[in-house]
Amino acid sequence: MNINQIDIMNGHDFETFCAELLKNNGFTEIVLTKGSGDRGVDLIASKNGYKYVVQCKRYSGNVGNKAIQEIYSGKDIYHADKALVITNSDYTAQAMSDAISLNVELWNRNTLQLFITRNQPDKNDGPSQHEKDTCRFYGKFNIICAKKLVQNGFSDIQIIKSGDDYGIDIIALKDNIKYGIQCNNLDKTRRIENFMLLYKKAKYYGCSKLMVISENIFENEEILLANELNIELIQL
């Protein structure tokens, strides 16, 4: 399976593909809704004790905020805990902003490509299978950083799903440049360690620029290392 094959799927086949994608990534109790009268919900699934409603959008253009509003409403109608939209394309800036505000998870074209890569032979120096489980809005500070990025003109914002810090927390685009971004509110020693993780993981994700966002003041040792590694430092 490759991304070009996904692009030519019809709506039903894409829903079936998404159901299989969820299954391969730890979701259970996956049910396809009947279509008519589904209130914008194509799939219902469970993971880690949470009930999800999922909308599947096989699009050639960017998905707008209507999909975000529909799945958010569908979460209440189906008494679910979480809402997710999956597309083979991307999202408008307004859709991403609404998704962040409403805590709707977004998987886009890059997400699907990473999942496809995950099922291929391991690459040298690539992230582990867990690390590549991407594009879930996870962690309060990550959401704060994502909102700041939207406000500053970034698009294609991907928040990496992980229970631990694997170096890159957010992937985003600005001026057609791909950024690897770390949301780092740790103490100085751990921040410095994570600078190195960010630098190491950037190549795998194809990031041309690196950024660390923190609410804490960066100290001289961090600034020197960031300059050496060409990491941009942003203090909120």
Question: Can you put this structure into words, describing what you see?
Answer:
The structure is a single chain. The protein has 236 residues and is an alpha/beta fold. The protein is 39% helix and 24% strand. It has eight helices and ten strands. Helix 3 links the parallel strand 3 and strand 4 (82-87). Helix 3 packs parallel to helix 4 and helix 4 packs antiparallel against helix 6. It starts with a helix and ends with a strand. Mean pLDDT is 81; it is low at 122-138.
Notable features of this structure?
Trna Endonuclease, Chain: A, domain 1; 39% helix; 236 residues; 24% strand; 8 helices
Average pLDDT reading: 81
CATH topology assignment of the largest domain = Trna Endonuclease, Chain: A, domain 1
The helix/strand class is alpha/beta
| Number of structural domains | 2
Helix content estimate: 25-40%
Element-level helix/strand string: HHEEEHEHEHHEEEHEHE
Q: Oligomeric status of the shown chains?
A: single chain
* Radius of gyration over all CA atoms, rounded: 18 Å
Low-confidence residue ranges: 122-138
- Taken as a percent bin, the fraction of beta residues is 15-25%
The description of the largest β-sheet is: 5 strands, mixed
Give the overall shape, derived from the CA principal axes.
elongated
